[in-house]
Amino acid sequence: MLVVLAFIVIFHITSIALLFISTIDNAWWVGDNFSVDIWRSCFTNVTNTVCKDIVSSNPSYQAIQTIQATMILATILCCFGFFSFILQLFRLKQGERFVLTATIQILSCLCVMIGVSIYTSMHDQFHPELKPDAGRFGYSFVIAWIAFAFTLTNSIMYLILRKRK
Q1: Where do the domains of the chain lie?
Q2: How wide is the angle at C-alpha 145 spanned by C-alphas 144 and 151, nearest 5°?
Q3: What is the three-class DSSP state of 162?
Q4: What is the pTM of this model?
Q5: Which residues partner with 29 through β-bridges?
Q6: What architecture does CATH give domain 2-160?
């Protein structure tokens, strides 16, 4: 049972790390001379890189704020779920399930899914200065989808897990 708990802790910490990386890093949409995320756009020329924040004059600013909020909320919920798991590990009686932790993880999973789905459907509208076919989804976008799968798997593991000797 100790090996299973260690695996779950490592899996959960990995989910948290993936959420932090995907939310913070500037590689949701990349091209030869630019990289874009949910916070700013960076353009590289021969000598330097110029970054500018996404401004409220952007026609899709509310959708971008929704993505920002859901990714931040997913990260916070995943961290809170980990602390909930640690508390429940020592507080629950044997044979009880980690339902609270599973619920928090499924909420985190849903937040990631909502944010990344919105970005998938509207990414070409967020940065009108870029041609729609000028780039491709970056590794932060892929990591966000992997984090979705990890948090979903985590929530299922918590629902199945029973505290045993």
Answers
A1: 2-160
A2: 85
A3: strand
A4: 0.88
A5: 36, 137
A6: Up-down Bundle (1.20)
Q: How far apart are the first and last CA of the chain?
A: 7
Q: What is the pLDDT of residues 117-143, one digit of tens each?
A: 999 888 777 776 777 677 888 899 999
Task: Output the CA torsion 28→130→41→137 (10° steps).
Answer: 10
| 132 to 31, 82, 121, 127, 137: CA distances (angstroms) | 11, 39, 12, 9, 11
**In what order do the strands lie in the sheet containing 49-53?**
49-53, 40-44, 34-36, 29-30, 136-137
22-39 tens-digit pLDDT: 999 888 888 888 888 888
Structural element, H or E, at residue 76: helix 61-91
Q: Strand, coil or helix: what is 54?
A: coil
- DSSP strands (E only) in 26-163: 29-30, 34-36, 40-44, 49-53, 136-137
3-class DSSP string for 133-156 = CCCEECHHHHHHHHHHHHHHHHHH
